[in-house]
Design a protein that fits this description.
- There is one protein chain.
- This protein is mainly beta.
- It is built from 5 helices and 23 strands.
- The strands form 7 sheets. Strands 11, 12, 13, 14, 15, 16 and 23 form a 7-stranded antiparallel sheet that branches. A 6-stranded antiparallel sheet has the order 17-18-19-20-21-22, covered by helices on one side.
- A hairpin with a 2-residue loop joins strand 9 and strand 10.
- The longest helix is centred in the first third of the chain and has 12 residues.
- It is rod-shaped, with a radius of gyration of 65 Å.
- It comes from Nannocystis pusilla.
């Protein structure tokens, strides 16, 4: 409230009211020159709740001032305080105005953070400004996320972003903390190297040296495709799309995979489907034998053959027998079952020629002579003849003294007898020689004589007499003990003795002859047959 006092007596009343009967200490200051100012302070020794504090200013005339000046009414303000009451009075003679204010407060004192006392809503109060201990600004207990790096924390950025420089657990980001951070491909929070994420926080990948369970079968962390683990992290395979293991090219060659095709890589002939490797590359095969060696399960049929490899001769088609007598045989001549053209003195034996080349199947019933006869070298010759009843073919095969073509063999082997050191003779038992008859359904009973001499070979002819028995490839028979006066012949280009008159000129085929079969004197037995080279 504000109270206006009009004279000095009122001043005293104001003082009494302020004291309110309590013991008090009063301090007054007066200034009497010019403008007078009086200050009065009253202090109550015993705290009184609700006791006002009065501040007043009274302006009165003082000595030296003009009398009759207006005097302002004092104003008093009363407010609740606790414990101490102070009254200030200021008197100014010039203005004659007095003011008084009184302030009072009731209830418990407000807690002060930082006074070292835990009060009110404070969680702690350690009385210091250190935000790195257990009690931080605001008298709050230190915690991760408060923005202050407290005990046990490596960082605290006060946010909930878990992929920045400080994780939500107040630790700096690190591989293995389970949080995907910049620079990490993954982070599964474990040290297992066989799952999708390595302990280095790199995604599992082939070549990292760890076998990814369920995905990889091996991982040797190298780029060597020839060892037990490829760069696909799997064992070498013939279908993995890379050259691996012992392969000579992608998924072919080597001991495990199928042979390679033409122009693919090779280190040896068996790497190639063609059976021929030239300069590290599969080329057209040089022979049926080479194909058989490269492909043990190769079927009978037509194959491309290049007899001279990189030479000037072009590749050509050859029928290869891959299944009988070890396989790898090339068809050179086919003999019709009757009325054939390949008699002993036929020029086809010694000249470069082909007959019915397009009809290259061994089952065709016409005569045929093929390029294999002319240009394909080999070390073995085989003659096969058809049985008239079973129609099956029986064969006789022999090794040659040197690798040669059949054209060179029949051209360069002198025609004649063993007596004259001519012809080429194969050594075998008499029982085996007789097989030249049995494979074509014949026997010694079909011979024109009881033989005491038998021989098997190439270009055999009786050059010791004018008898007419001879054979290009097969068996000769004589009732004598040597090749003089031969009587019968079985095989290919076979002829028997015609008459004792010696009326067949040299170089002329005898009337009793067969291109393929048995000439037993006047009894001529024709059959179908083949000559093969390997």
């Amino acid at each position: 409230m504000r109270i206006q006092l009009w004279n000095a007596a009122a001043w005293g009343i104001c003082v009494l009211v302020a004291c309110n009967g309590d013991s008090a200490t009063t301090s007054a200051t007066e200034t009497g020159t010019g403008t007078g100012t009086t200050s009065v302070e009253t202090t109550t020794g015993t705290p009184t709740t609700g006791t006002p504090t009065t501040t007043g200013t009274t302006t009165q005339p003082t000595e030296g001032s003009a009398s009759g000046d207006a005097t302002s009414l004092p104003t008093t303000t009363v407010e609740p305080t606790t414990g101490t009451t102070t009254t200030d009075t200021t008197t100014t003679g010039t203005t004659g105005t007095t003011e008084a204010e009184t302030t009072g407060t009731t209830g418990e004192p407000e807690p002060v953070c930082g006074d070292g006392q835990v009060e009110g809503a404070e969680q702690c109060d350690d009385g210091n400004d250190d935000n790195t201990d257990t009690c931080v600004e605001g008298c709050l207990e230190a915690s991760c996320g408060d923005g202050f790096v407290g005990p046990g924390e490596a960082c605290d950025d006060g946010n909930e972003v878990d992929d920045d420089a400080c994780n939500n657990d107040c630790a700096p980001p690190s591989c293995g903390d389970g949080v995907l951070q910049m620079g990490e491909a993954c982070d599964d929070g474990n040290a297992i190297e066989t799952d999708e994420c390595l302990s280095t926080c790199a995604a599992a990948s082939c070549g990292d040296g760890f076998v990814h369970e369920g995905v990889e079968t091996c991982d040797d962390a190298n780029a060597d495709e020839t060892d037990a683990c490829t760069t696909l992290c799997a064992a070498p395979s013939c279908s993995d799309g890379i050259q691996s293991g012992g392969e000579s090219d992608v998924d072919c060659g080597g001991p495990e995979c199928p042979p390679c095709e033409l122009a693919e890589g090779c280190t040896e002939p068996t790497d190639c489907e063609s059976g021929s490797c030239d300069g590290g590359q599969c080329v057209v095969s040089a022979s049926c034998k080479a194909i058989k060696q490269a492909q043990p399960n190769a079927p009978d049929g037509l194959y491309d053959i290049d007899a001279d490899g990189a030479g000037p001769q072009a590749p050509f088609k050859v029928w290869c027998d891959m299944t009988t007598d070890g396989g790898g045989w090339a068809l050179a001549i086919r003999f019709a079952p009757s009325q054939g053209i390949f008699d002993f003195y036929s020029p086809h034996w010694t000249t470069v020629s082909v007959v019915n080349e397009a009809l290259n199947s061994p089952t065709d019933t016409t005569d045929g002579k093929f390029k294999a006869y002319n240009v394909l070298p080999g070390g073995e010759i085989r003659g096969c003849m058809q049985h008239p009843i079973t129609k099956a073919y029986g064969c006789k095969s022999y090794s040659l003294p040197a690798t040669t073509t059949l054209l060179d063999l029949f051209t360069n082997t002198p025609v004649g007898s063993d007596i004259a050191m001519k012809g080429l003779y194969f050594q075998e038992d008499q029982a085996d020689m007789v097989n030249w008859l049995t494979i074509q359904g014949r026997s010694l009973a079909d011979a024109s004589i009881a033989p005491n001499y038998m021989a098997v070979g190439i270009n055999i002819d009786d050059d010791q007499s004018c008898y007419d028995a001879r054979v290009r490839f097969g068996l000769v028979l004589n009732n004598e003990v040597n090749s003089s006066t031969l009587n019968d012949a079985a095989g290919f280009g076979a002829q028997s003795h015609y008459t004792v008159a010696c009326d067949v000129a040299p170089g002329v085929d005898a009337p009793w002859r067969t291109p393929c079969g048995f000439a037993g004197g006047p009894n001529i037995y024709n059959t179908a047959g083949h000559i093969w080279i390997r």
